[in-house]
Structures are given as C-alpha cells and as structure tokens.
C-alpha cells in the first residue's frame, strides 16, 4: 500500500476518528507515516495545554524595523519584453477550438490537482497550531504516537517500573525500550497520575537520563496516559538508562523543570 495521504494523517492525529483497516495496517508497518502523525500530535498536545496562554503584542519598534527593511529593499527589475512592439496588431488574437480530451486523462488530471489542494487545506488547518507552538518556543523534537499500534515485530530490550517522586505520591507508571526489525529504538511510557495532583493537567515531558542524573535527553511530551517515543538516532541508551516524566510549565524553557512525577531505571528484559 502507498503512504497514507496527509489529510488522513492529520485527521487521525487531531481527532477521535478510527483508522480504517488498511490504513491501520499501513501505520503499523510504516515508521515514516507514524512519525508524521507523531509530529502533528506533539504540536496539538502543546497547543491544547497552552489554551490559557496570553500572547503579548510586539512593541512598535518591531513593526518600524520591518517597515524600514521593506522600504530599503530594491525595486524588482522588470525584464524587457522579447516581443517587438512594431509587430503588434490591433486585431484580437484568435482563440483555438478546444481539443478533444481523453476522459481517463481528464480524471487523472483532476486527481493530480485535488491532492495538492487537500494538502493546502490541511496545512491551513494545522498552521494555527504550529504558529502557537513556535510562539511558545517549543519545537517538535521527537515522535509520540499514543494509541497507534506498534509494528508487531518489536523486541523489548529493557523495562522498568516508574515510581512516584515525593510531591506526586499516588502516581505510577511503566517504561519499555523496544527495537524494531530495522534497528530503530522506541521508548513506550505508561503513566498513571491522580487528577487531584497539583499541575496534573499541564505538560508532561519524557526524559532519558544518566544514572547520576547529571545528563539528560528529552524524547518528547506525553499526550494522555500512554506514548510511544522515537529514541534519537545514535543515542547510547546504556548511558541514559533512567526514564523520567516531569511536569512542565508553558514558559518556553526547554530545561527540565525539576518537578519529576515518576522515575525508574531500565533493566535488560
């Protein structure tokens, strides 16, 4: 089966729509399409968690600089016409009769034109989400695909229980490190935290840390209670065996907040 079209991927990422059987089968075996859904879900999760953020209008000097830059730009040079004006005539140009069109070719042409239009529609729908994420200073850095099926050929390399930190008593979870047949690594995280906990409705970021907790790598934000995260290519997971889920503020600061919800150390399965 060919790759799933952009419109379907977007709808699956931001809605409760259930994938048709052929689409679900393709997603289970196609890392590229899963990564596309992951990127859209990542931005959507940040946006939903940032609904209360108030955006500040830029100062007037910003607009003044933009206007000055535009005014300083050179006028475009119009190339001279290659047509000799003396050869121009006042009579209207003749209009050719429309040529016969093959119906099959017409349908193919219509399909080729419809697809870019759908992509433009999807881009417009998602552009507001993407712009808000940029304004918040948060980038799409990894893939999380909650609820989507795995490829079915993954091997669990390591796992751990995630234990609550003192400020988050009652929370718990699990983490598994998987490897697919192509050698790609995925971190699967399940989190259970009480709704009455402070900040339970905010952003939750998943990290892989060194044993001494002095080095860490963010693998993405958790949307819901379960997520599948693509481990960055080339990362030595043996050097970062600790899995940590933290509560994060919508402040655009990429650093760890210091407010860990759960944590655990991966052990070989």
Tags for this model:
globular; 22% strand; 9-stranded antiparallel sheet; 269 residues
Q: How would you describe the overall organization of this protein?
A:
The chain is an alpha+beta fold and about 270 residues long. Among the domains are: about 5-45, no CATH class; about 155-269, Immunoglobulin-like. It contains five helices and nine strands. It has helices at about 5-15, 20-30, 30-50, 60-70, 105-135, and strands spanning about 155-165, 170-180, 185-190, 205-210, 215-220, 225-230, 240-250, 260-265, 265-269. Strands 1, 2, 3, 4, 5, 6, 7, 8 and 9 form a nine-stranded antiparallel sheet that branches. β1 and β2 (about 170-180) form a beta hairpin. It is globular. Residues about 80-150 have low confidence and may be disordered.
* Basic shape: globular
Second rung of CATH, namely the architecture of the domain at 155-268: Sandwich
Share of residues in strands: 15-25%
CATH class of the domain at 155-268: Mainly Beta
Low-confidence stretches: 82-149
- From the alpha-carbon coordinates, what is the Rg to the nearest angstrom? 26 Å
Mean pLDDT: 72
Let me know the number of strands: 9
